[in-house]
């Protein structure tokens, strides 16, 4: 039997385990990336391992999230990351050099290589033919130290594309259609591979838009073949030697296949407040929805192609009086080429506000909408409150749809006379001045690592006890995201290296009293619904509950990265054997789980709900844990396990 692209890369990097779906496999990691919102903690974890220099082929530290330096906190974190990168063999991308995923596929990504990053949108690199996976910071730290990265062996899902996109329809509409069909849970446990005759005209930047937002499917990653389109892109980047052809075998088998005719697609939008709440723009336009704000950029849609399309639509025109428009180029390369060809002038003359080459509004770092405001964004997530405005109404759209709304002031079907290919100039304007190489090994020996007062120690972890008896501090519904657990935004992100301060905001958008109640209880349990912990890879969504005394989370199901982060932090993830048992437990009741050591042998336990000192219900739960993860829990988390 033949292999898929992903299976070929996994086989070439397999260090441990068998390639059978569901079984844990350990992979050799070629490259890592971090960004500053997760990177400070990741490098503190790496330092604690005592490894003098990274053992990957390439590790890069990006500054793209916390670029708003309203106080000393972000600047101190950036200084720490730069100093630790220089000492330990890590390349450093300065603030303003660009968004990690955009810069990485431009300058560092290589087809056939493995990449993990402490950001859930690391699968962007799959558009270049990489096996690129989002992970928690601890997993990235271990990989930088030369350790294997472990995941359950995924199943394979093929998206067969046929036809060609019509004018006004873009790559963003392809991934929105996939989300409409599969939902935010539909990719869990899968690697999504794009294939079929429809891919031949999709550029690398279009492919990266699709693989980027595959994170919203809950998929392990997404991947495209490495073909002539890939070679053309790499040659234009001056990196033709990095190209290699990659394709699936003709007799490769897939666990699931869906088909999409690109010629039948129309412009789409993900409506508030979920990326899979997808509706046609034509339907929304008929409702006469007034738009207050338009944001164009993010790691999903900030390529040169996206910017030139928007500039061509706005050239010689003026944005609507009631609309505020932001433009965030994805990298310094994109920004300089926009300036060189005049596209930047066209955007400025139309009334756009040009922001830094960074994540910015996507993570609530500035440019939040007005109260109840409708904001059309070319981003990848529209979770409630993520924009920085709790009642903001965020729609996820393509650059073309965003530009049309900016001009009319309403959700509007974009009118494009042609689907022009702006994507691959003969050569890109290469300027790597924003990237700093690490010190050589000799100079690194005496280099100083600088830590500011906002950088606090890693929270204490607890080895798994044979019995857990604790109050249910919080019970939540389905699809709780990491933004619910540990919000982003300009007020909170500067404290990502300060867990004690960060803990004040845990679950703030769900229950403002959670942190205070959890701390008072000393230890506790959280009960969740389906897909608990979807969204970002931020390990803070596990570390902060750990700091607040959470010992276990019982849910109907977990998002992959968050479940791994819970284990890495020493928190036990448990799954209701019968999802209906979710209704048998209430917030404020006590959960008792005994015999956990014995339960680890068969991945089963019984949670007893205590009411007035008596057992009110007995609820069977299971653990979806690999043997290595059991040892991690018994040791008290990944760092203690690694040290042992």
User: Which shape, going by the Cα principal axes?
Assistant: globular
Indicate the radius of gyration in whole angstroms.
24 Å
Per DSSP E runs of 2 or more residues, the count of β-strands stands at 27
First CA to last CA: what distance?
Answer: 40 Å
The main β sheet shows up as:
7 strands, mixed, barrel
Helix/strand-derived category reads alpha/beta
Please give the share of residues in helix. Answer: 25-40%
Strand content: 15-25%
Stretches where pLDDT is under 50 for at least 5 consecutive residues are none
What topology, given as strand order, has the largest sheet? 21-22-23-24-27-26-25
Average of the residue pLDDT scores: 95
Number of helices: 22
Task: Please characterize this protein's 3D structure.
- The protein is α/β, with parallel strands linked by helices and 644 residues long.
- It is 30% helix and 20% strand.
- The chain contains 22 helices and 27 strands.
- The strands form six sheets. The chain has a seven-stranded mixed β-barrel with strand order 21-22-23-24-27-26-25, surrounded by four helices. Strands 7-6-3-4-5-20 form a six-stranded mixed β-sheet, covered by helices on one side. A five-stranded parallel β-sheet has the order 17-16-15-18-19, covered by helices on one side.
- The two termini are 40 Å apart.
Summarize the structure.
By secondary structure, this protein is an alpha/beta fold. 30% of the residues lie in helices and 20% in strands.
